[in-house]
Amino acid sequence: MTQFNFRFQKILELKENEKGFAQIQMADAIKKEQAGYQKSMAITDKLQEAEHLKREKEQGGVNIAELRMLEMYINQLQKESAVTNRELEFLKGNVSRTQNHLQQKAQEEKTWDNLKEQELYKFQEEKKTQEQNFFDELASTRFYRVAQATAAERG
């Protein structure tokens, strides 16, 4: 009995590998996005602390030089926050692109896998037909022999 051999098996394996690579890229993009969120939250926390400290110092009566340094630090954190937010937007876009890429690769793999399943089904149906024909021929041959033997006994 012959075995099923999918003629596009190499393409299917390539599509499976591409999907696996796309999954790795997606995981990496998500990890970078999460790191970006954490960085953004850390800067926001520092900014809030610095602004709170500035308010306390203003109420407590501190010299101008110290307030200016605190104000410069707050401005630096605000710039850093703006840069981080732009990076975060880029990372979100990257996650979206890699997600779309992954979906495309998964669809391609599914298409080839469905083709393989269809060909396997056709192969199995052809095998059933061949087996049925073989058994039909055996039955016909046996019937013919029994009929010949019966006719010879009678005749």
Mean pLDDT: 93
Computed Rg:
37 Å
| Amount of beta strand | under 5%
Query: Major β-sheet, in short?
Result: none
**How many DSSP helices?**
2
Compressed to H and E, one letter per element, the order equals HH
Q: What's the end-to-end separation, in Å? A: 42 Å
Q: Helix fraction?
A: over 70%
Overall SS class: mainly alpha
Overall spatial form = rod-shaped
How would you describe the oligomerization state of the chains in this entry? Answer: single chain
The poorly predicted ranges are: none
- The count of strands amounts to 0
Secondary structure layout:
Blueprint: H1 9-60, H2 64-154
Helix pairs in contact: 1-2
Textual characterization of the structure:
With 155 residues, this protein is mostly helical. The radius of gyration is 37 Å and the shape is rod-shaped.
In short:
With 155 residues, the chain is an all-alpha fold.
For this entry, give a set of tags.
155 residues; mainly alpha
